[in-house]
Amino acid sequence: MVNLFKRLNFRAMIIIILCSIILFSCKGNGPGDQNIDKELNRISLTDDYIPSLDFQETRYVSAYSNLYYRSAKTNAYCTVVLSIRNTSLTESIYVDKVDYYDSYGELLSKFVMDTNKLRPLETREFVVEYSDQEGGSGANFIVNYGAQSELKDLPIIEAVSIGHVGNNGFAITSPSKVISSLNTSQ
Fold first, then answer.
1. What are the φ/ψ torsions at residue 133 (nearest 5 degrees)?
2. What CA–CA distance (Å, rounded) separates 58 from 119?
3. Region for residue 166 given its phi and psi (left: phi exceeds 0; alpha: psi -120 to 50; beta: otherwise)
4. Minimal CA–CA distance to 126: which of 149, 90, 95, 91?
5. CATH code assigned at 78
């Protein structure tokens, strides 16, 4: 009986050691364990075919990269995220311009260099970092996109400015405004 107990104890010890080795040698799938390279500020698709775009629209989007706080001399700086959301279930849109301007209308960044496709329900985001303080309180984006024909479901294009003052965080959403629209399919 003692010999059987020792044999079971030895087997149990071996199983515990093997399980421990297996358990501790596995890598977790937590957010800190994944090395995902998200290139948010570049649209790089391999679609070579860009159809004739009979519907085109240009939109203006306010982007508050900094806000006045208590006086004109004190600023609260923000991270700005421009989001382009294709809300169509069936139609793709083609983005050929995402430009970022400062309060004086000076071009600061061109986020898109070539025409690129956003498939149905696809979203693209463009980020102006918190440390980029050139934009000012009147910063803005100009976005140009097109489609093969007039869209039934227009995309949602908006900016979210995110910042904090002390322990208080805030977010401001800015919807886009159509400044130019062209439909040659009519």
1. -105, 20
2. 19
3. left
4. 95
5. 2.60.40
- Amino acid letter at 157? I
> Is residue 18 in a domain?
no
Spatial distance between the Cα atoms of 108 and 138, rounded to a whole number of angstroms: 13
Angle at the Cα of 69 (from 67 to 72), degrees rounded to 5? 85
**Torsion from C-alpha of 114, 119, 120, 124, nearest 10 degrees:** -60
Interval 91-122: pLDDT, tens: 999 999 999 999 999 999 999 988 888 999 99
Give pTM, 2 decimals: 0.73
The reply to whether 38 falls in a domain is no
Give 158's strand partners.
Answer: 83, 175
Residue 92 is assigned to a structural domain of this protein: yes
What pLDDT digit, counting tens, does each position of 134-166 carry? 998 899 999 999 999 999 999 999 999 999 888
Q: What is the pLDDT of residues 37-94, one digit of tens each?
A: 444 444 445 456 788 889 999 999 999 888 888 888 888 889 999 999 999 999 999 9
The answer to whether 78 and 162 are in contact (CB under 8 A) is yes
Say if 3 falls within a structural domain: no
Q: Which domain holds residue 155?
A: 55-183
